[in-house]
């Protein structure tokens, strides 16, 4: 065996043992408590939100006629105990009260109910009022059925979410409301997609979940020949098809969104979704929302996805544990490589010995031909 192979095997074995031991030690450590995670979240927010930045963001939001966004920053200031210029608070109060606030709310409520879209709390509430019933789902299905009839491209994710929404509406009734968080989460997801608040990564992952649960070809056949304006017939066809939907995975994902909405508000959930790139992020956002409450949306505006990483500390492997796993794998590979080198050398040595045997010792025992004389 060569020195290189010997060192690879010994070093690899020791590294693998050390890595495995390190992982076992870190794996037995207790995960951080809710209080510890919340403390880490607050420290992260404080580092990203000095008073100067908070006041600048509040003023900018008010200048853009976005008092809801300004409120998010004010809540973050209160959460971490940062004093804000009283003049900014007074300006926000004036923007959110009186005739101007009433007119803004009325206009956004009408738009939200009619189109299923909304930006502020009032608009979102109105949009969800139609979508939490079967009306919103059938409205969206009618729009996509019209495209089918015209031979246009169909938004399969919207169709899938709407069919799942019909199924969850029925489930909410059948289970006396236990499916309501999932239904609320699904309605928020549709609203987030319409208003451009779903990230491309989360949308792609969600599309896979939905389309695995909903048989799109079967639904196309079910609505074939139904005029797009016959919403009653579309609702009936969607109801029959929804009864066959396997919605367990959709329900789990949407329930997380519903929990975020319960801990914050529907409008704040849309803001949170801007930072979610997948189901794992969604779970972390749910944890952060439960620990911080309504200010989580403003905190995410200020910290970005960093906050989700901090929330993930309670549910993911630590850096030390990951390093231990990498060491164990690398050590095992090193040992195997050394063993392969040693085996290759041994095979070459065996062949050399066999050749020598055949051409020296073996020749003594071979019969020699008798000379003809």
Largest sheet: none
User: Treating each run of at least 4 consecutive H or I residues as one helix, how many helices?
Assistant: 19
Instruction: Report the order of strands and helices.
Output: HHHHHHHHHHHHHHHHHHH
Helix content: over 70%
Taken from the alpha-carbon principal axes, the silhouette is flat
% residues in beta strands:
under 5%
Average the pLDDT over all residues and give the rounded result: 76
Distance N terminus to C terminus? Answer: 53 Å
Weakly predicted, low-confidence segments: 172-178, 315-319
**What's the total number of strands?**
0
Q: Rg, please?
A: 32 Å
Secondary-structure class: mainly alpha
Describe this structure in words.
With 373 residues, the chain is mainly α. The protein has helices at 3-27, 34-48, 51-63, 67-80, 86-95, 98-115, 121-131, 134-150, 156-174, 180-194, 200-213, 216-223, 231-242, 248-263, 266-273, 279-292, 296-303, 306-311, 319-364. Helix 4 crosses helix 17. It is flat and about 75 Å long. Mean pLDDT is 76; it is low at 172-178 and 315-319.
Short précis:
The protein is mainly α. 77% of the residues lie in helices and 0% in strands. The chain is built from 19 helices and no strands.
Which key features would you list for this structure?
373 residues; mainly alpha; 0% strand
Give me the secondary-structure topology:
Elements: H1 3-27, H2 34-48, H3 51-63, H4 67-80, H5 86-95, H6 98-115, H7 121-131, H8 134-150, H9 156-174, H10 180-194, H11 200-213, H12 216-223, H13 231-242, H14 248-263, H15 266-273, H16 279-292, H17 296-303, H18 306-311, H19 319-364
């Amino acid at each position: 065996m060569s020195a290189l192979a010997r060192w690879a095997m010994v070093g690899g074995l020791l590294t693998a043992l050390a890595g495995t031991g390190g992982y076992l030690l870190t794996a037995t450590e207790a995960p951080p408590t809710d209080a510890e995670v919340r403390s880490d979240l607050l420290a992260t927010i404080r580092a990203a939100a000095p008073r100067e930045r908070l006041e600048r963001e509040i003023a900018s939001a008010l200048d853009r006629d976005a008092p809801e966004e300004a409120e998010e920053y004010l809540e973050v200031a209160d959460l971490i105990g940062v004093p804000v210029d009283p003049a900014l608070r007074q300006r926000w109060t004036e923007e959110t009260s009186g005739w101007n606030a009433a007119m803004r709310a009325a206009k956004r409520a009408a738009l939200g109910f009619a189109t299923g879209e909304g930006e502020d709390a009032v608009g979102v509430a109105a949009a969800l009022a139609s979508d939490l019933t079967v009306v919103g789902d059938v409205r969206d299905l009618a729009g996509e059925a019209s495209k089918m009839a015209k031979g246009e491209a169909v938004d399969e994710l919207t169709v899938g979410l709407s069919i799942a929404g019909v199924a969850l509406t029925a489930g909410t009734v059948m289970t006396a409301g236990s499916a309501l968080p999932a239904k609320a989460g699904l309605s928020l997801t549709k609203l987030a997609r319409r208003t451009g608040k779903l990230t491309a990564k989360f949308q792609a992952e969600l599309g896979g979940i939905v389309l695995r649960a909903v048989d799109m070809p079967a639904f196309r056949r079910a609505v074939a020949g139904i005029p797009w304006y016959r919403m009653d017939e579309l609702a009936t066809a969607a109801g029959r098809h929804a009864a066959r939907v396997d919605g367990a995975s959709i329900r789990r994902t949407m329930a997380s969104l519903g929990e975020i909405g319960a801990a914050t508000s529907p409008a704040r959930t849309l803001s949170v979704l801007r930072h979610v790139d997948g189901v794992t992020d969604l779970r972390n956002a749910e944890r952060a929302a439960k620990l911080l409450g309504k200010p989580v949306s403003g905190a995410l505006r200020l910290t970005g996805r960093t906050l989700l990483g901090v929330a993930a500390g309670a549910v993911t492997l630590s850096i030390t544990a990951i390093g231990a796993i990498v060491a164990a794998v690398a050590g095992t590979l090193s040992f195997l490589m050394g063993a392969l080198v040693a085996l290759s050398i041994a095979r070459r040595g065996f062949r050399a010995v066999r050749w020598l045997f055949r051409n020296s010792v073996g020749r003594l025992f071979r019969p020699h031909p008798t000379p003809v004389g």
